[in-house]
Every structure is written in C-alpha cells, then in structure tokens.
Amino acid sequence: MRYRVAVAVAAVLLTACGSSGENSSASPSATPLSGTVSVFAAASLTEAFNALGTSFQGANSGVTMKFNFAGTPTLVTQIEQGAPVDVFASADTTNMDKLTGDGFTAGTPQVFARNKLEIVVASGNPKGITGLADLAKSGVIYITEGPTVPAGKYALQALKMAGVTVTPKSLETDVKSVVGKIELGEADAGIVYTTDVTAAGNKVQGVPVPDADNVIATYPIVAVKATANAAAANAFVAYVLSAAGQAKLQSFGFLSAS
Amino acid sequence: MSLDASISLTLGPLDLDMAITVDEGEVVALLGPNGAGKTTLLRAVAGLVPFRSGHVRLDGKVLEDTVTRAYVPTERRPIGFVFQDYLLFPHLSILENVAFGLRSRGTSRQAAVEKAIHWLDRVGLKSYASSKPAGLSGGQRQRVALARALAPNPRLLLLDEPLAALDVTTRAEVRRDLKRHLDSFEGIRLVVTHDPLEAVALADRLIVMENGHLVQTGTAQEVTEHPRSQYVADLVGVNLLRGEADHGSVKLAGGQVVAAAGAELGEVFAVVHPRAVAIHRTHPEGSPRNVWSGRATNIELLGNRVRVRIDGEVSLVAEVTPAALKELNLVEGGKVWLSFKSTDVAVYPA
Amino acid sequence: MRRERVPIVALVPAAIGAAFFIVPLIGLIVRSPWADAVAALTAPETLEALKLSLIASLSATAVALVLGVPMAWIYARVAFPGRDLLRALTTLPMVLPPVVGGIALLLAFGRRGLMGAWLATTFGITFPFTTAGVVMAETFVAMPFLILTVEAGLRSMDRRYEEAARALGANRWTVFTRVTLPLIGPSLFAGAVLCWARALGEFGATITFAGNFPGVTQTMPLAVYLLLETNHNASFILSLVLLLISLVVLVGLRDRWLGSA
Asked: Which residues from chain C sit within 8 angstroms of residue B97, using beta carbons?
C-alpha cells in the first residue's frame, strides 16, 4: 500500500516537473484559459487522458477538465443527441468520419496516437493461451467488444487475418468491461489494446498478437463544433498533439501518431 | 358419551377458568354478557386458542391435555363449528362450501356433492347450490353455515352466537329452524349466546358465565327461579339480595335485616319480584315487615307497567301500573318508602 | 351524480406529474420512424431479443413464484427473531442499483464467486454468459416485488377463513391451496405481473452478470441500448414496443392492484 502511494506521489511530482519545464502548449498562453473543458474519449484512453488532463490543468489553473470515457460509438450517439462536449477523441477513423459527416466537428480531425491489439488473460495465464488460435480452444471463455466498438471491429479483423473462427461469449460495450471480466475471472481471454493490458497492471497478463495478424488502431482527435469554450478546447487538442503530450501518451504504451 | 373440558387461560384482559361437561342428550347454552369469555372457551374447545392448563376430552378421548402435553390439531377433531359471521368461503359456491368438510376429510368428489345437496335440501336451499355466498340473505347464509358444519357428521357441534348477525324479524324464524336441527342432531351440542331468550329457546341446560368464571348452571327454569348473580337476576328481571340467613331473617352485607319467611341458616340468596314491592309516599302502616326508605332514581315505562328503581338502604326495583304511578304523584328523585312482605321473599342457599 | 371540483392545489402538481410521464411517451411515438417500423420489428435480431426476453422474464417469474410465495408466507405468518432483518435483506434488490446487483451476483455466483466456484468445480455449472444467468439476474431484481405484494395480501386477508377451514377438517396444505391462495388471488396476480414487468425491463444486472450475446443473453433492453449506437431509429421502435407492453400491463392491472384482497 505504501509502495503504491510512493509511486503515485512520484508520478505527480514528475508530471508537475515535466510540464513546468516544458516549452509547450501546456504552459500558459497569452490570455489565460478558463472555464470547463469537457472531453469525450474512447475507453482505451482512460488512464492516458486522465494524466494529460491533470498536467493541462496544472499549467492552466483557470481550467477544469471533465472526462467521459466510454465505447466510441456510445460517445458518438451522445454527442449527436446533443450532449455538451468540447473535445472528442475516437479510437478509429470510421466513428470520427461519421461525426464529421453529420456536421458535428469544428476543424479537421488529427491523428494523435496509434495502438495495437493484444490478447488479455488472467494473471498467471491459467488456460495457457499462446496466440489467437488458442482462443478457439474448448474450455476457453473468450469475450470481446461489440462489433461497432473500434476494438471489437479490429479484433474481428485480426481473427480473420489469422484464420481463426471463434464465437465470443459476450459482446461488451468497451475495452474496460472486457478487462474487468478477465480480472474477475469470469472470462478467460479477450482482445483489447496493449495500453489496456499495461494499464491493468499485474491483475492481468498480455499475450502478444504477431504483427502479421495485428491491426493498427488510429486515434483522431477534434474540437467539437458546439463547444462553448473554443479557446480552451483547441488549446487542449494542441497540447495532446504537442511533443509533451505525445511523450506522455507513449509513456502509457501508445504508438506515435505516424 | 360427553364433552369434558376444563380450561384455564389468560387472553388480554380476560382471565378464564372454567370446567364444563356436556352430555349428548342435552343442548347446552353458554350464556353470559359480552366479554365473559364464552367465545374464547368455545374456540379453546375447538383447539383454536392455546390454554395454560387443563384438558379437553370428547367421548373419553383426549383432544388436549396440558399435563401430558397431548394436542390433537383442530383439523383432526370431529367437530362442526358455526362461526358468528358464518365465514362462508366467498370464492366457492354454496354447494362447494357445504361439501368442503367432506372433501377435506377425504370423501370423493361425487359422494361429497351428493351429501352436500342432501344437506342443502334439508335447510331448504337446494336451488341456491351454485350461487355464491354474497348472493344470499343473512338468514340463508346462516342456514348454509349450519349445513356446512353438519355435513361431515361431526361428533361435537359448536355454535358461536348463531343468530346474533340477524335482524330481529329473521331471528325468530331462523331460531325455530335451528331448534329443529339441534334437536335432530345426534352428537354433543354447545351453543354460545348473550341473548337469554335465545338460550332458553334453544337449550335444555344453561351454563352462565361472567368474567371468565362459572356463575351457575341448570335448566332454564332452575336458573330463572334461582338466579345466582346480578346478571341473571337482571335478565330475569327480579331483585337479588345476598346475605346470612337466621330463622326468618336474612342479614345483608351492609347490615340491613330483611324479614324472609323461608330463611333458615347459612349463606343465602333472596329474591324479591318487583311486583311484590309496594311504593309509598309516606311511611306505611300495617303488616309488611320490610320497610325501607329511598329515592326513586329511575322510572321506566315498559308497555303497560312501570319499573321504578329505588336506591336507599336496600335498593330494589319495584313494578307498578301507570295508574298507580300517577296516583303516587312520583317523579324521578322523589323520596319514597318501599315495602314487601316476608312471604314474598324467596330464599335459597348461595 | 354530483362531482366535486378538484382543488387547484392538487390539480397543478398532478398535471405537472402527469406531463412528466406522458411527454416522453408522446416523444417516443412522434419521433419513431413508422415507415421503418415493420422492418425494425421483424428483423431477426429483434425477434431473437424479443423471444429471449419473453422466455427469460417468464422463467424468472416462475422461479419467483416458487421461491417467493413460501417466503412471503413465512414473513406474514411466522414470527421469528431476525425476521425484519431477513425481510430487509431479501427485498434489498428493490432499492439496489441494478449494476450493483449484477456485481453482487458475480461475486456470489461468478466463476470465482463464493458459491459459483464450488458449483463450477463440482458440477461444471457456470452462470455468466448463459441464459440461466439472465434468468438469475432478472429473478434477483424482480422477486422482491412479488414477495412484498404477496406478503401484504396475506397480512390483510381475514385469517378466520383459515380457522373455518381447519374446523372443517382441512390440513394445512389444503387450507393453503383451497382457501388462502384463492383469497389472496388478486395480490398473487398483481405480484406476479409486477415481477414479470420488472424482469422484462432489467438491464444493469443482466449485462453485468450474464453478459451480452444475441440469442443467449441479449434481451430486449440490451438490444435497445446497443441499437442506440448503430441504428437509433430501430432502437426508438423497440423502446416503443417495450413501453407499450408495460403500459398494457399496468392498465390491465390497475383495478386489481388498487383494490386487491
């Protein structure tokens, strides 16, 4: 317990040090930013964006960050039904294109990170999963995200490329639900992003998916048209795209944007 | 063959301690004011109320005994119970109601229905067989309740205020029918009532209860001629005194001495009929040895007679004609003298 | 017949309250794309979800009747130490957020759950990701409604009818089946219908405990939730279907529920 607290304190201090010494968009701009910035981001961005939000807030004391993490399609529905939001970060381009096509975005979406898939299993790998083919083994309970969730779509692609046919036992609403059920021991294996496996720490274990079968997920970010705080929204987007933001994302396991 | 019950229990404010026997040759009425514990006693005999100590034996067989902890559940006692509100099952037809006891004890559906129809016929309600209880009048429902209790041919018939829920005009007619059925029933019959008229009409023997205890038991004639409690005396409508007899006089608790012709020795009751009590505005002359002063506290006109309650050293009720009352020029609160002959005092051991 | 004028003090809040319930229904009717209604309703995924919902909710109601009526009887008729606490615990799902209920079920009956682990290793039985799991989740949240309604009916019935039956020679089982049950019929029916309606609409516990897969665990409410993301027109239609089912149930129930026993 004390070890965890020490790590957390160190992380906060490093983050604070990191942002204050940087010459980046995290530092205060000419006219100080204020107000709330509401960010809807794909579930796989939970830990990374919470950290980005903390440093952005640290550098811009007048700003309050609010996050809503969920499966990407869920977020798109909420935005199109009129939820008040300033920034949207998607786990694939398809959902972003939909939002843009329906006229909800301001400016051009930009790719800020990429991700790869990984098989997640319970710590200790009790069912001995070594690759995608093992997901179809009898006695293995495999779950995944719904087909409209980016990770779910990518998982189907990966399985197809590897020539594996397997019926999942459940179609969850986002990656975190899948990880949760693996942690609880309800399911044996699922397909999520490498960043999700890292974020769950030693409660789970990852089994790599070979690059030949793997899918690169592309994450675009954009300010939303109906934003009430364009200045702060754009500043946050710029921060995410900046070297500092990129470094932080990569520290969570995301691949660089290009 | 008989019912032998001795029951002690406490239920709320009621402390009940009664021992009764009922033979199969007699219809017995449990008579007493409301709250006396009559219904509680009946329910205890049926096994519906637990009691602290005592026993219930029917035809020599033990139904309940606190000493040996024997207890035969209600449903296995050969009883028929007619409840005060009849409690006919509202969701079943009259026929199904009457057949219920038979079906519950294992009779086949066909045999039960046959018997039920036979009983409905006996109480004159065969044409109502398929009706529901809600569609019948009070008197009709009472008859169904009786048929339902009798159909399984019980050994002990218990009736709780069987006529209380009926209006006065229906009551008389139903009472006649009930008497007929009771007389033709071959088992042991125990009726609970607060109405002395009902008790006298239906029963051969009365058991009078007050506050959970036995007051007196006897035939209607015995009870009315020799009341042993104010309750019965009030029912019968006579004056009741109690005291120590000593050769021609009775000394009351308050010290007053009443001249009573038949008094010998011992603790006695003394009854004086209101008609034997004369009212005077002044101290009377002449023979009556019992003369007491008092005040007329209540004057009640009852048809062609007047009852005057006189409170004084010896408080009594006197009965006179309306003409006599007028002659006396008496109003409530007026000072009077009452008198009665020693030969008009009926005395019997307490 | 002379009618009393409704006082303004009651009328205004009542009207607001009524609007609160009626406007969403109207919104759903107005916004539903009626042209696509038939297609949405007859799509295989919809029919599958509907069929699964009906089977699961009716099964849950059956389980609730078998387990719940005896519980209600004991709560109403038997005084024992701890009765109030036990009753509170078994009706807790009524106030518990459904997802919390789902989590509790996982911790108890999941593969590594308190009882679930034993069931899995001894009998090979697991509940998550199965239709049986759906039935369990629905029973968990819906049974309390049945228990409370039936218990209320038992408490308010005239028990002297049971005494009359006993005096006629009926043993306890006969008393229960031929007298008690018929007399609490309205409460029993109302309780079962409430239970069924609640089971039909259950979402949080189902998706948490049983998961989500078409034909196995994807009930109507789950299907509606997911359709909201992919084809929200279809989700409006299905929502309307669920709403209308609930409405029919409540309208049909109104007199019996309000005038029960």
From this structure: none
Identify whether residues A189 and A234 lie together within a single domain: no
Are B349 and B242 in contact by the 8 Å Cβ rule? The answer is no
End-to-end CA distance of chain B: 31
Residue A12 has pLDDT above 60, yes or no: no
Query: Using the 8-state DSSP alphabet, how is residue C179 labeled?
Result: I
Strand order in the sheet with B265-272: B257-259, B249-252, B239-246, B265-272, B345-349
- Which residue in the set C111, C207, C212 is minimally distant from A185, CB to CB? C111
pLDDT in tens, A203-253: 999 999 998 899 999 999 999 998 888 999 999 999 999 999 999 999 999
Q: Is residue C126 part of a domain?
A: yes
State how far residue B125 is from chain C, nearest Cα, in angstroms. 20
pTM of the model: 0.76
Touching chains C and A? (3+ Cβ pairs < 8 A): yes
| Residue of chain A nearest C235, judged by CA positions | A77
pLDDT tens, position by position, C18-56: 898 888 888 888 877 777 777 777 778 788 888 999 999
**ipTM score of the complex?**
0.83
Assign C125 to helix, strand or coil. Answer: coil
Distance CA B146, CA B82 (A): 6
Chain B hits for C187, Cβ within 8 Å: none
Residue of B nearest to C160 (CA): B87
At C219 the three-state DSSP class reads coil
Residue B302, strand partner residues: B305
The residues spanned by each domain of chain B are 2-232, 237-349
Summarised one tens digit per residue, pLDDT across range B207-241 is 999 999 999 999 988 988 889 888 888 888 899 99
Residues of B in contact with C180 (CB under 8 A): none
Cα–Cα distance for residue pair A217/A194, rounded to 1 Å: 11
Q: Mark whether A48 and A58 lie in a shared domain.
A: yes
Q: What are phi and psi for residue B330, nearest 5 degrees?
A: -105, 135
What is the pLDDT at residue B332?
87
Residue C182 inside a domain? The answer is yes
Q: What is the CATH number of the domain that holds A175?
A: 3.40.190.10
Minimum CA–CA partner of A167 in chain C: C213
Q: What is the pLDDT of residues A32-66, one digit of tens each?
A: 888 899 999 999 999 999 999 999 999 988 999 99
Q: Which residues of C touch B134 (CB under 8 A)?
A: none
Q: Which CATH architecture has domain B2-232?
A: 3-Layer(aba) Sandwich (3.40)
Return the H-helix or E-strand segment holding B117: helix B109-122
**CA-CA distance, C249 to C252, in Å (whole number)?**
5
Instruction: Give the CB-side neighbour count of residue B163, counting CA atoms within 13 A.
Output: 23
Which among A118, A138, A122 is positioned nearest to A187, based on CA atoms?
A122
| Domain assignment present for C238 | yes
Q: Are residues A89 and A122 in the same domain?
A: no
DSSP 3-state of B270: strand
C52 in contact with A at a CB cutoff of 8 Å? no
CB of C45 within 8 Å of a chain A CB? The answer is no
Q: Output the average pLDDT for chain A.
A: 87
Side chain identity at residue B263, one-letter code: A
Architecture of the CATH domain B237-349 = Beta Barrel (2.40)
Q: Where do we find the tokens 């009720």?
A: B317
